[in-house]
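Q: What would this chain look like folded?
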Amino acid sequence: MPSKETLFAVSLLPYLLFLWFLTRSGQAPRLALIGFYLTLLFIAVTAPAGIYAQKVYGVSLANLDVLHGAAEVFLTLSNIVIVLGFRKAILQARDQSS
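A: My prediction, written as structure tokens:
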């Protein structure tokens, strides 16, 4: 069975391809696109936090509430930005069709 690190690296590739195609298409609302890129910030924060939790406290990140909660803030932020981006695009399309 592959290691967690291998699975993580392999799972990151489809997301990076998604971002590349989405950016290249030019059809995604700008704010939503920023939100999708902020998800990479979540990954950039979570990975070191997980390593820190394991090395310093000997537990996984999920078992260290303070660090886990802090890392999840970045995921929540990215999700909010994505939703606001699509909401703005829907409202603008509605206004233009009226």
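Residues 30-97 form one domain.
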